Inverse folding.
């Protein structure tokens, strides 16, 4: 039996749920509340020393890192295949999946600057500090501190938007050759980015690709049309949370779009 430690709206956990849904694999879910700090509990950190989700447990085997978990799932349950059959195809796919952590960091930047910041600025400074002071990685901790202080005006945000622009530009080029990032077949390369787009959409920021990258916009519509999108992504986002994301993000939409346009000029 597969057990997945995950969180409802966490984009990295959603990446793995999409793979599980595409393969029709059953799993036992253990939901963590990241806002309450379940990820920092010593029992969980024995499984995942980085104090993040997801973690997959397969019998007595513990696997961390969503990109690696996705390849593991494709190996233990090869049908339908989510990797190209040939070595060169898999190498090309991994050029996409290798970028996932780098782009995830940008997603985390935007979510922290837009939503987490709005949530935490209403709380006393000690409570705000508590949200990030247990993060094991000192760079990540410092990033949180700066984003809570400066929000969208932080240079970390400009860097995140520039990462998106480069990704969209490369995707736009690749999608001239077929409906999916590796051509005709839907693969782990596509899966790796879907929940990131969903998060940006939930933060009212879909305009940053819709306005400039039409093939990317069509690709995302195709991803949303797959049953796995509803099962693994929207099916886990509580309505109140989605409404909260919209409420907090809508007033910042123009600012995000202007900052993205600026990032396009320097990328
Ligand atoms: N590279 C890791 C990143 C995992 C990650 O950062 N997960 C986030 C949620 S998407 C998390 O658990 N954050 C914990 C926190 O916010 O303290 C992966 O792909 O599994």
């Amino acid at each position: 039996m597969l057990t997945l430690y995950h969180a409802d709206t966490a984009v990295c956990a959603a990446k793995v749920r999409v793979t599980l849904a595409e393969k029709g694999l059953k799993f036992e879910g253990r939901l963590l509340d990241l806002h309450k700090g379940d990820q920092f509990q010593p029992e969980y950190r024995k499984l995942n020393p980085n104090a993040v989700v997801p973690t997959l447990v397969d019998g007595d085997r513990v696997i961390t890192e969503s990109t690696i978990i996705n390849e593991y799932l494709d190996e233990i349950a090869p049908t339908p295949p989510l990797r190209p059959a040939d070595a060169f195809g898999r190498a090309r796919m991994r050029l996409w999946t290798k970028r996932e952590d780098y782009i995830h960091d940008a997603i985390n930047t935007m979510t922290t600057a837009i939503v987490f910041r709005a949530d935490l600025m209403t709380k006393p400074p000690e409570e705000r500090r508590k949200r990030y002071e247990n993060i094991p990685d000192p760079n990540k901790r410092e990033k949180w501190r700066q984003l809570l202080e400066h929000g969208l005006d932080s240079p970390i945000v400009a860097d995140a938007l520039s990462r998106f622009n480069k990704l969209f530009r490369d995707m736009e080029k690749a999608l001239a050759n077929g409906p999916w990032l590796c051509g005709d077949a839907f693969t782990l390369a596509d899966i790796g980015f879907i929940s990131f787009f969903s998060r940006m959409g939930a933060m009212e920021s879909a305009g940053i690709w819709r306005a400039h990258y039409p093939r990317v916009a069509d690709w995302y519509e195709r991803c949303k049309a797959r049953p796995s999108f509803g099962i693994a992504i929207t099916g886990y986002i509580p309505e109140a949370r989605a409404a909260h994301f919209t409420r907090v993000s809508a007033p910042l939409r123009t600012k995000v779009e202007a900052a993205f346009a600026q990032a396009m000029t320097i990328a």
